[in-house]
From TrEMBL:
Homodimer. The lineage of its organism: Bacteria, Pseudomonadati, Pseudomonadota, Betaproteobacteria, Neisseriales. This is Acetylornithine aminotransferase. Its cofactor is pyridoxal 5'-phosphate. It comes from the Bacteria.
Length: 411
Protein backbone atom coordinates (compact mmCIF):
# COMPACT_ATOMS: atom_id res chain seq x y z
CA UNK A 1 0.00 0.00 0.00
CA UNK A 2 1.37 3.49 -0.84
CA UNK A 3 1.35 6.06 1.97
CA UNK A 4 -2.21 7.19 2.60
CA UNK A 5 -2.99 10.85 3.19
CA UNK A 6 -6.27 9.95 4.91
CA UNK A 7 -6.54 10.27 8.69
CA UNK A 8 -6.52 6.88 10.29
CA UNK A 9 -10.13 7.09 11.50
CA UNK A 10 -11.20 3.73 10.03
CA UNK A 11 -9.80 0.25 9.86
CA UNK A 12 -10.57 -0.56 6.24
CA UNK A 13 -10.76 -3.91 4.48
CA UNK A 14 -8.15 -4.39 1.73
CA UNK A 15 -10.75 -4.19 -1.04
CA UNK A 16 -12.02 -1.25 -3.13
CA UNK A 17 -15.13 -1.45 -5.26
CA UNK A 18 -15.44 0.06 -8.68
CA UNK A 19 -19.06 -0.49 -9.61
CA UNK A 20 -22.24 -2.15 -8.44
CA UNK A 21 -25.63 -3.32 -9.61
CA UNK A 22 -28.46 -4.25 -7.27
CA UNK A 23 -26.99 -6.44 -4.50
CA UNK A 24 -23.77 -7.09 -6.45
CA UNK A 25 -20.44 -5.26 -6.37
CA UNK A 26 -17.24 -5.59 -8.42
CA UNK A 27 -13.81 -4.77 -7.04
CA UNK A 28 -10.93 -3.12 -8.89
CA UNK A 29 -9.79 -6.59 -10.09
CA UNK A 30 -13.20 -7.34 -11.57
CA UNK A 31 -14.17 -9.89 -8.89
CA UNK A 32 -17.90 -10.09 -8.11
CA UNK A 33 -19.24 -9.86 -4.52
CA UNK A 34 -22.64 -10.21 -2.87
CA UNK A 35 -23.49 -7.26 -0.63
CA UNK A 36 -25.17 -8.22 2.67
CA UNK A 37 -24.60 -4.88 4.44
CA UNK A 38 -25.79 -2.29 1.89
CA UNK A 39 -23.27 0.34 2.97
CA UNK A 40 -24.57 -0.06 6.56
CA UNK A 41 -28.30 0.03 5.79
CA UNK A 42 -27.94 2.88 3.27
CA UNK A 43 -28.28 1.43 -0.24
CA UNK A 44 -31.59 -0.28 0.46
CA UNK A 45 -32.53 -0.05 -3.24
CA UNK A 46 -29.23 -1.58 -4.30
CA UNK A 47 -26.31 -0.09 -6.17
CA UNK A 48 -26.63 1.96 -9.35
CA UNK A 49 -30.44 1.91 -9.36
CA UNK A 50 -31.31 3.27 -12.82
CA UNK A 51 -34.17 5.50 -11.62
CA UNK A 52 -32.02 7.03 -8.87
CA UNK A 53 -29.16 7.55 -11.32
CA UNK A 54 -31.54 9.23 -13.79
CA UNK A 55 -33.05 11.47 -11.08
CA UNK A 56 -29.57 12.57 -9.94
CA UNK A 57 -28.43 13.29 -13.49
CA UNK A 58 -31.60 15.18 -14.40
CA UNK A 59 -31.57 17.27 -11.21
CA UNK A 60 -27.83 17.99 -11.51
CA UNK A 61 -28.55 19.34 -14.99
CA UNK A 62 -31.21 21.70 -13.56
CA UNK A 63 -30.29 22.81 -10.05
CA UNK A 64 -28.31 21.30 -7.17
CA UNK A 65 -28.25 24.00 -4.53
CA UNK A 66 -29.76 27.38 -3.77
CA UNK A 67 -29.62 27.39 0.10
CA UNK A 68 -32.49 27.68 2.54
CA UNK A 69 -32.69 31.41 1.94
CA UNK A 70 -35.22 30.47 -0.76
CA UNK A 71 -38.14 28.13 -1.27
CA UNK A 72 -37.21 24.58 -2.32
CA UNK A 73 -40.00 22.73 -4.09
CA UNK A 74 -38.46 19.25 -3.73
CA UNK A 75 -37.90 19.83 0.00
CA UNK A 76 -41.59 20.73 0.40
CA UNK A 77 -42.61 17.58 -1.46
CA UNK A 78 -40.32 15.26 0.46
CA UNK A 79 -41.39 16.82 3.78
CA UNK A 80 -45.06 16.30 2.94
CA UNK A 81 -44.54 12.71 1.85
CA UNK A 82 -42.45 11.72 4.88
CA UNK A 83 -44.92 13.35 7.27
CA UNK A 84 -47.81 11.49 5.63
CA UNK A 85 -45.94 8.16 5.87
CA UNK A 86 -44.86 8.63 9.48
CA UNK A 87 -47.91 10.42 10.93
CA UNK A 88 -45.87 13.56 11.59
CA UNK A 89 -46.65 17.25 11.01
CA UNK A 90 -43.35 18.94 10.07
CA UNK A 91 -39.89 18.06 8.77
CA UNK A 92 -36.41 19.57 9.08
CA UNK A 93 -33.73 18.39 6.62
CA UNK A 94 -30.03 17.97 7.25
CA UNK A 95 -27.22 15.80 5.86
CA UNK A 96 -26.60 12.86 8.19
CA UNK A 97 -27.94 10.77 11.01
CA UNK A 98 -25.97 12.56 13.71
CA UNK A 99 -27.31 15.90 12.48
CA UNK A 100 -30.86 14.56 12.54
CA UNK A 101 -30.37 13.53 16.17
CA UNK A 102 -28.79 16.91 16.98
CA UNK A 103 -31.97 18.46 15.63
CA UNK A 104 -34.13 16.23 17.83
CA UNK A 105 -31.99 17.03 20.90
CA UNK A 106 -32.33 20.77 20.20
CA UNK A 107 -36.11 20.30 20.06
CA UNK A 108 -35.89 18.61 23.48
CA UNK A 109 -34.05 21.65 24.87
CA UNK A 110 -36.68 24.04 23.49
CA UNK A 111 -39.40 21.80 24.89
CA UNK A 112 -37.68 22.09 28.29
CA UNK A 113 -37.50 25.87 28.00
CA UNK A 114 -41.24 25.99 27.31
CA UNK A 115 -41.84 24.01 30.46
CA UNK A 116 -39.54 26.21 32.55
CA UNK A 117 -36.96 23.47 33.16
CA UNK A 118 -33.47 24.99 33.30
CA UNK A 119 -31.36 21.81 33.65
CA UNK A 120 -33.21 19.32 31.46
CA UNK A 121 -32.34 15.66 31.06
CA UNK A 122 -32.88 13.38 28.07
CA UNK A 123 -33.16 9.67 28.87
CA UNK A 124 -30.97 7.47 26.64
CA UNK A 125 -30.34 3.74 26.62
CA UNK A 126 -27.48 1.40 27.46
CA UNK A 127 -25.87 0.02 24.31
CA UNK A 128 -27.39 2.71 22.07
CA UNK A 129 -25.78 4.45 19.11
CA UNK A 130 -26.83 7.92 18.00
CA UNK A 131 -23.79 9.33 16.18
CA UNK A 132 -20.34 10.87 16.58
CA UNK A 133 -20.94 14.58 17.19
CA UNK A 134 -20.48 15.88 20.73
CA UNK A 135 -24.15 15.66 21.67
CA UNK A 136 -24.80 12.36 19.93
CA UNK A 137 -21.69 10.62 21.24
CA UNK A 138 -22.70 11.68 24.75
CA UNK A 139 -26.15 10.20 24.04
CA UNK A 140 -24.63 6.93 22.76
CA UNK A 141 -24.38 4.09 25.28
CA UNK A 142 -21.02 2.83 24.08
CA UNK A 143 -17.84 3.76 25.99
CA UNK A 144 -15.72 3.10 22.87
CA UNK A 145 -17.48 5.95 21.03
CA UNK A 146 -16.85 8.33 23.96
CA UNK A 147 -13.27 7.28 24.71
CA UNK A 148 -10.91 10.26 24.59
CA UNK A 149 -13.56 12.96 24.21
CA UNK A 150 -14.16 14.02 27.78
CA UNK A 151 -15.70 16.21 29.06
CA UNK A 152 -18.90 14.80 27.59
CA UNK A 153 -21.87 17.02 27.01
CA UNK A 154 -24.13 16.85 30.09
CA UNK A 155 -27.89 16.49 30.09
CA UNK A 156 -28.29 12.75 29.51
CA UNK A 157 -29.38 10.02 31.88
CA UNK A 158 -28.93 6.39 30.97
CA UNK A 159 -31.19 3.41 31.63
CA UNK A 160 -31.22 -0.25 30.48
CA UNK A 161 -32.87 -0.81 27.08
CA UNK A 162 -36.32 -2.42 26.87
CA UNK A 163 -36.85 -2.16 30.65
CA UNK A 164 -39.90 -0.09 31.55
CA UNK A 165 -39.47 -0.60 35.32
CA UNK A 166 -36.00 1.00 35.16
CA UNK A 167 -37.44 3.94 33.25
CA UNK A 168 -40.30 4.44 35.74
CA UNK A 169 -37.78 4.37 38.58
CA UNK A 170 -35.66 6.93 36.74
CA UNK A 171 -38.73 9.15 36.29
CA UNK A 172 -39.34 9.13 40.06
CA UNK A 173 -35.76 10.15 40.80
CA UNK A 174 -35.35 12.85 38.13
CA UNK A 175 -38.15 15.39 37.82
CA UNK A 176 -36.24 17.33 35.14
CA UNK A 177 -36.51 14.71 32.40
CA UNK A 178 -38.00 16.22 29.23
CA UNK A 179 -37.54 13.53 26.57
CA UNK A 180 -36.53 9.96 25.79
CA UNK A 181 -34.37 9.05 22.79
CA UNK A 182 -34.55 5.38 21.78
CA UNK A 183 -33.90 3.13 18.77
CA UNK A 184 -36.75 0.73 17.96
CA UNK A 185 -34.05 -1.83 17.15
CA UNK A 186 -30.54 -1.18 18.44
CA UNK A 187 -28.47 -1.56 15.29
CA UNK A 188 -24.83 -0.87 16.13
CA UNK A 189 -25.59 -2.32 19.55
CA UNK A 190 -26.13 -5.75 17.96
CA UNK A 191 -29.73 -5.95 16.67
CA UNK A 192 -31.70 -5.83 19.90
CA UNK A 193 -35.43 -5.28 19.34
CA UNK A 194 -37.55 -3.12 21.66
CA UNK A 195 -40.70 -5.09 22.44
CA UNK A 196 -44.02 -3.61 21.27
CA UNK A 197 -45.21 -3.66 24.90
CA UNK A 198 -42.17 -1.63 25.97
CA UNK A 199 -42.76 1.01 23.29
CA UNK A 200 -46.47 1.20 24.20
CA UNK A 201 -45.64 1.66 27.90
CA UNK A 202 -42.98 4.21 26.98
CA UNK A 203 -45.55 6.12 24.91
CA UNK A 204 -47.94 6.15 27.87
CA UNK A 205 -45.20 7.29 30.26
CA UNK A 206 -44.21 10.13 27.92
CA UNK A 207 -47.86 11.23 27.74
CA UNK A 208 -48.31 11.21 31.52
CA UNK A 209 -45.01 13.01 32.20
CA UNK A 210 -45.09 15.45 29.28
CA UNK A 211 -41.86 14.05 27.79
CA UNK A 212 -41.10 14.01 24.09
CA UNK A 213 -40.91 10.45 22.76
CA UNK A 214 -38.06 10.64 20.24
CA UNK A 215 -37.26 7.60 18.10
CA UNK A 216 -33.99 7.20 16.27
CA UNK A 217 -35.16 5.50 13.04
CA UNK A 218 -31.93 6.29 11.21
CA UNK A 219 -31.12 2.62 10.63
CA UNK A 220 -34.61 1.11 10.99
CA UNK A 221 -36.66 3.63 8.99
CA UNK A 222 -38.06 3.29 5.46
CA UNK A 223 -38.78 -0.42 5.37
CA UNK A 224 -35.75 -2.12 6.88
CA UNK A 225 -37.65 -3.84 9.74
CA UNK A 226 -40.55 -5.02 7.59
CA UNK A 227 -42.66 -1.91 8.18
CA UNK A 228 -42.16 1.68 7.10
CA UNK A 229 -40.85 2.54 10.57
CA UNK A 230 -39.80 0.48 13.57
CA UNK A 231 -42.46 2.11 15.73
CA UNK A 232 -45.23 0.82 13.41
CA UNK A 233 -44.79 -2.66 14.92
CA UNK A 234 -45.94 -1.28 18.28
CA UNK A 235 -48.92 0.63 16.87
CA UNK A 236 -47.78 3.88 18.49
CA UNK A 237 -46.66 7.24 17.11
CA UNK A 238 -43.66 9.06 18.63
CA UNK A 239 -43.43 12.86 18.93
CA UNK A 240 -40.14 13.12 17.05
CA UNK A 241 -38.39 10.72 14.68
CA UNK A 242 -35.00 10.92 12.98
CA UNK A 243 -34.10 9.47 9.58
CA UNK A 244 -31.00 9.35 7.39
CA UNK A 245 -29.21 6.27 6.02
CA UNK A 246 -31.66 4.82 3.47
CA UNK A 247 -33.41 8.11 2.71
CA UNK A 248 -30.99 9.02 -0.10
CA UNK A 249 -29.84 5.49 -1.07
CA UNK A 250 -26.29 6.84 -0.70
CA UNK A 251 -26.82 10.53 -1.41
CA UNK A 252 -26.28 12.23 1.98
CA UNK A 253 -29.53 13.40 3.58
CA UNK A 254 -31.01 13.33 7.06
CA UNK A 255 -34.37 14.39 8.44
CA UNK A 256 -35.98 15.13 11.77
CA UNK A 257 -39.79 14.84 11.73
CA UNK A 258 -42.03 16.04 14.55
CA UNK A 259 -45.70 16.25 15.34
CA UNK A 260 -48.01 18.34 17.48
CA UNK A 261 -46.31 20.87 19.79
CA UNK A 262 -42.84 19.46 19.00
CA UNK A 263 -43.39 20.41 15.35
CA UNK A 264 -43.86 24.08 16.28
CA UNK A 265 -40.82 24.63 18.52
CA UNK A 266 -38.36 26.04 15.98
CA UNK A 267 -38.57 29.65 14.89
CA UNK A 268 -36.19 31.28 12.39
CA UNK A 269 -32.71 31.53 13.90
CA UNK A 270 -32.97 28.41 16.11
CA UNK A 271 -31.46 25.94 13.68
CA UNK A 272 -30.23 25.59 10.13
CA UNK A 273 -27.98 23.86 7.63
CA UNK A 274 -26.30 25.19 4.51
CA UNK A 275 -26.67 21.99 2.51
CA UNK A 276 -29.69 20.57 4.34
CA UNK A 277 -32.63 19.69 2.09
CA UNK A 278 -31.08 20.82 -1.17
CA UNK A 279 -32.98 20.12 -4.41
CA UNK A 280 -30.72 17.22 -5.40
CA UNK A 281 -30.91 15.32 -2.10
CA UNK A 282 -34.65 15.89 -1.73
CA UNK A 283 -35.43 14.83 -5.26
CA UNK A 284 -33.49 11.61 -4.63
CA UNK A 285 -35.42 11.17 -1.36
CA UNK A 286 -38.70 11.45 -3.30
CA UNK A 287 -37.40 8.95 -5.85
CA UNK A 288 -36.48 6.53 -3.02
CA UNK A 289 -40.05 6.81 -1.70
CA UNK A 290 -41.54 6.32 -5.20
CA UNK A 291 -39.60 3.09 -5.67
CA UNK A 292 -40.11 1.84 -2.10
CA UNK A 293 -43.87 2.37 -2.35
CA UNK A 294 -44.23 0.91 -5.82
CA UNK A 295 -42.15 -2.18 -5.01
CA UNK A 296 -43.70 -2.54 -1.53
CA UNK A 297 -40.25 -2.76 -0.01
CA UNK A 298 -41.34 -2.93 3.64
CA UNK A 299 -43.35 -6.07 2.85
CA UNK A 300 -40.47 -7.44 0.83
CA UNK A 301 -38.09 -6.82 3.75
CA UNK A 302 -40.46 -8.73 6.02
CA UNK A 303 -40.62 -11.73 3.65
CA UNK A 304 -36.92 -11.82 2.79
CA UNK A 305 -36.05 -11.28 6.47
CA UNK A 306 -38.09 -14.33 7.44
CA UNK A 307 -36.37 -16.37 4.73
CA UNK A 308 -32.90 -15.23 5.83
CA UNK A 309 -33.58 -15.73 9.54
CA UNK A 310 -35.06 -19.20 9.01
CA UNK A 311 -32.22 -20.25 6.72
CA UNK A 312 -29.56 -19.18 9.21
CA UNK A 313 -31.41 -20.71 12.15
CA UNK A 314 -31.67 -24.05 10.36
CA UNK A 315 -27.93 -24.06 9.60
CA UNK A 316 -26.49 -22.45 12.73
CA UNK A 317 -28.87 -22.34 15.71
CA UNK A 318 -28.01 -24.77 18.47
CA UNK A 319 -24.36 -25.01 17.42
CA UNK A 320 -22.18 -24.61 20.55
CA UNK A 321 -20.25 -21.67 19.06
CA UNK A 322 -23.46 -19.79 18.22
CA UNK A 323 -25.35 -18.07 21.04
CA UNK A 324 -28.34 -17.17 18.91
CA UNK A 325 -29.70 -15.98 15.59
CA UNK A 326 -32.16 -13.09 15.78
CA UNK A 327 -33.60 -10.41 13.61
CA UNK A 328 -36.35 -8.01 12.68
CA UNK A 329 -37.13 -7.72 8.97
CA UNK A 330 -33.84 -7.45 7.12
CA UNK A 331 -31.81 -6.60 10.24
CA UNK A 332 -30.28 -9.92 11.23
CA UNK A 333 -27.68 -10.84 13.85
CA UNK A 334 -25.80 -14.01 14.63
CA UNK A 335 -24.49 -13.78 18.16
CA UNK A 336 -21.31 -15.82 18.52
CA UNK A 337 -19.93 -17.24 21.76
CA UNK A 338 -16.48 -15.73 21.14
CA UNK A 339 -15.03 -12.70 19.31
CA UNK A 340 -15.22 -13.14 15.52
CA UNK A 341 -14.14 -9.85 13.92
CA UNK A 342 -11.74 -11.63 11.47
CA UNK A 343 -14.82 -13.11 9.79
CA UNK A 344 -15.42 -9.83 7.94
CA UNK A 345 -12.16 -10.12 5.99
CA UNK A 346 -12.59 -13.88 5.55
CA UNK A 347 -16.10 -13.47 4.15
CA UNK A 348 -14.74 -11.09 1.53
CA UNK A 349 -11.78 -13.28 0.63
CA UNK A 350 -13.25 -16.78 0.67
CA UNK A 351 -16.96 -16.20 0.03
CA UNK A 352 -17.01 -12.86 -1.85
CA UNK A 353 -19.60 -11.71 0.68
CA UNK A 354 -19.89 -8.36 2.49
CA UNK A 355 -20.90 -8.73 6.15
CA UNK A 356 -20.37 -6.70 9.31
CA UNK A 357 -19.36 -7.62 12.86
CA UNK A 358 -20.45 -5.32 15.67
CA UNK A 359 -19.58 -5.47 19.36
CA UNK A 360 -16.83 -8.01 18.53
CA UNK A 361 -19.02 -11.09 18.51
CA UNK A 362 -22.20 -10.18 16.66
CA UNK A 363 -22.32 -10.84 12.92
CA UNK A 364 -24.74 -8.31 11.47
CA UNK A 365 -26.51 -8.54 8.11
CA UNK A 366 -28.30 -5.64 6.45
CA UNK A 367 -28.88 -6.75 2.86
CA UNK A 368 -30.48 -4.39 0.35
CA UNK A 369 -34.29 -4.66 0.37
CA UNK A 370 -34.26 -5.35 -3.40
CA UNK A 371 -32.37 -8.65 -2.94
CA UNK A 372 -33.86 -11.60 -4.77
CA UNK A 373 -34.88 -14.73 -2.82
CA UNK A 374 -32.04 -16.53 -4.65
CA UNK A 375 -29.54 -13.99 -3.33
CA UNK A 376 -30.91 -14.46 0.19
CA UNK A 377 -30.29 -18.21 -0.19
CA UNK A 378 -26.75 -17.42 -1.38
CA UNK A 379 -26.15 -15.30 1.74
CA UNK A 380 -27.34 -18.21 3.92
CA UNK A 381 -25.20 -20.70 2.00
CA UNK A 382 -21.99 -18.67 2.00
CA UNK A 383 -22.27 -17.35 5.55
CA UNK A 384 -23.16 -20.64 7.21
CA UNK A 385 -20.29 -22.39 5.37
CA UNK A 386 -17.93 -19.65 6.58
CA UNK A 387 -19.17 -19.69 10.18
CA UNK A 388 -19.14 -23.48 10.50
CA UNK A 389 -15.59 -23.71 9.10
CA UNK A 390 -14.47 -20.92 11.45
CA UNK A 391 -15.96 -22.67 14.47
CA UNK A 392 -14.34 -25.97 13.52
CA UNK A 393 -10.96 -24.23 13.24
CA UNK A 394 -11.44 -22.35 16.51
CA UNK A 395 -12.33 -25.59 18.29
CA UNK A 396 -9.27 -27.35 16.84
CA UNK A 397 -7.01 -24.44 17.82
CA UNK A 398 -8.41 -24.47 21.37
CA UNK A 399 -7.71 -28.20 21.69
CA UNK A 400 -4.13 -27.93 20.40
CA UNK A 401 -3.50 -24.99 22.78
CA UNK A 402 -4.45 -27.07 25.82
CA UNK A 403 -1.90 -29.10 27.79
CA UNK A 404 -1.73 -32.67 26.42
CA UNK A 405 -3.34 -34.26 29.49
CA UNK A 406 -6.37 -31.98 29.28
CA UNK A 407 -6.68 -32.51 25.53
CA UNK A 408 -6.62 -36.28 26.08
CA UNK A 409 -9.07 -36.13 28.95
CA UNK A 410 -11.39 -34.08 26.75
CA UNK A 411 -11.35 -36.91 24.20
C1 LIG B 1 -25.85 5.33 11.61
C2 LIG B 1 -26.66 5.77 12.77
C3 LIG B 1 -26.54 7.08 13.30
C4 LIG B 1 -25.51 8.06 12.80
O1 LIG B 1 -25.69 8.41 11.47
P1 LIG B 1 -24.50 9.19 10.69
O2 LIG B 1 -25.10 9.47 9.35
O3 LIG B 1 -23.33 8.28 10.65
O4 LIG B 1 -24.22 10.42 11.46
C5 LIG B 1 -27.37 7.42 14.34
N1 LIG B 1 -28.25 6.57 14.86
C6 LIG B 1 -28.40 5.31 14.39
C7 LIG B 1 -29.41 4.41 14.98
C8 LIG B 1 -27.60 4.86 13.34
O5 LIG B 1 -27.71 3.62 12.90
Amino acid sequence: MPTSYLMHAYSRQPVSFERGSGALLWDTNGREYLDAIAGVAVTNLGHAHPEIAAAIADQAGRLIHTSNLFGIEWQERLGARLCALAGMDKAFFCNSGAEANETALKLARLHAQRRGIAQPLVVVMDNSFHGRTFATLAASGNPAVQQGFAPLMPGFIRVPFNDIAALRQCAEEHPDIVAVLVEPVQGEGGVHVASPAYLQQLRALCDVRGWLMMMDEIQTGLGRTGAWFGFNHAGIVPDVITLAKALGNGVPIGACLARSTAAALFVPGNHGSTFGGNPLACRVGCCVLDISEREQLPLRAKQLGEQLLRGLQVRLAGHPGVRGVRGHGLMIAIEMAAPCTPLVERALRTEALLINVTRERTIRLLPPLICTPVQIDQIVERLSRLVLLWLTEQAAAAVSAQPASVALAGG
